[in-house]
Amino acid sequence: MKIEDSLAAIVTGGASGLGRASAEALAAAGCKVAIFDINEEAGEAFAKEIGGVFCNVDIMSEESVEAGFAKAREAHGQERVLVHCAVVAAAGKTVSYDKTTGGYKRMPTALVARAAEGVFTASYRVASIAALGMANAEPLNEDGERGCIVLTSSAAAQDGQIGQVPYGGGKGAVNSMVLPMARDLMDLGIRVNAIMPGTFATPPMLGMKERAPAMYEALGNAVPFPRRLGNPPEFASLVMELVRNTYFNGQCIRLDGAIRMPPK
Question: Domains in the chain and their CATH numbers?
């Protein structure tokens, strides 16, 4: 897909981290970018900076997501690129010791269900709404391509750590969705891929650098090469290749410096 043709793009979680880097790269290539985020102040400022539009969107709400798509399409027309980086997750051990009661407790099912909604269901929500719009658009090239969807999974989908049942399980479900969704959409010329980032220098990790520098350094040293956390522009670089290269379809790609973390 040629992305220099002022194509419309939507990036969820676009006000910070991986989403921000992706939106910046798309805008630099000539795309008209809509930022979906719940951080209105940061989102408005960044959208203005890249000449895009901000949509205050809660990915947990069908109504909010649909309103965001409507606003983005009114401003830029039908999006041909969707990059989904926003997430609502949770963490906790299946069974853990409760110092207060002096006994064991299990992680509440409701916590896992919320993570499933914020990771897997939200990914389906935004991808399917984008796909429906793309399906009604004219093909962009001789291959009949109408659009490209890039989901954000995680290395935790294959390599989940202690306390990552909700998150790793949700991301594993995202991985499992990619190929059947790509096949569902093949006759419409809509591609679907996912990126599985390892440990990246996103705002939560940078916060750890201030609070617990030794732990932050250890996380970087756990990466075989390069021995550091990933930089968001490196994620964005892969996003751009997935958008440009029409032969990428139905793939879940690790981007992690070869890290394979043993349980701790």
Answer: 8-255 (3.40.50.720)
Would you state the structure tokens that stand for residue 255, as one six-digit string? Answer: 């981007």
**150-199: pLDDT as tens digits:** 999 999 999 988 999 999 999 999 999 999 999 999 999 999 999 999 98
CA distance 107 to 176: 24
Alpha carbons 134 and 137: distance in angstroms, whole number? 5
124 is catalytic: no
Burial (0-12, 13-18, 19+ Cβ within 10 Å), 134: buried
C-alpha–C-alpha distance, residues 112 and 91, integer Å = 8
Q: What is the pTM of this model?
A: 0.94
* Residue of 104, 124, 167, 247 with catalytic role: 167
Which of these, 184, 155, 179, 173, lies nearest to 248 by C-alpha position? 179
Residues in the chain, total:
264
Per the DSSP assignment, residues forming a β-bridge with 254 are 196
Amino acid of residue 151? L
The residues pairing with 10 across neighbouring beta strands, listed in sequence order, are 34, 82
Residues of the chain with pLDDT under 70: 4-5, 261-264
Other beta carbons within 10 angstroms of residue 53's beta carbon come to 21
Q: Long-range CB contacts (< 8 A, 24+ apart) of 109-115?
A: 111/166, 112/165, 112/166, 112/169, 114/88, 114/90, 114/166, 115/88, 115/89, 115/90, 115/166, 115/167, 115/169, 115/170
Please give the structure tokens belonging to residue 169.
């399980």
**3-state DSSP call for residue 149?**
strand
Amino acid at 160: G
